[in-house]
Amino acid sequence: MTEVKELRVALTVADFDGALAFYRDALGLEQVADWSSDGGRVVLLSAGRATLELFDEAQAETVDAIEAGRRVSGTVRIALEVPDSEATAQRLVAAGADEVAPAVTTPWGDRNARVQAPDGMQLTLFTVSG
Predict the structure, then answer these.
(1) 16-127 CATH fold
(2) pLDDT on residue 16
């Protein structure tokens, strides 16, 4: 039995306002807390259910090749399930993201798109088939 109750990814960003606008406003993550103070700014954004996906180098290369045609991700990449990966990617590019690769249908049937957020974080946007 696990004692872990929640997984959080903590991003330290140089442009806090820009990151907040991107992740909360453009991507649509719900703001659930604001713990900002005179000492600094922090908000908590809800991204639904959290999982930790571990890859070895060979599998990371395989997934990058499927989704982006080449090895492009670093040691951390955020994958987000969305209703329409193509539309979400287009919305995020309009909000300042760079397109890494257009949406593709994966061998497992999902529709995945890759973007890089203005803060440099690479995102896989996936829509589960059927």
Answers:
(1) 2,3-Dihydroxybiphenyl 1,2-Dioxygenase; domain 1 (3.10.180)
(2) 97
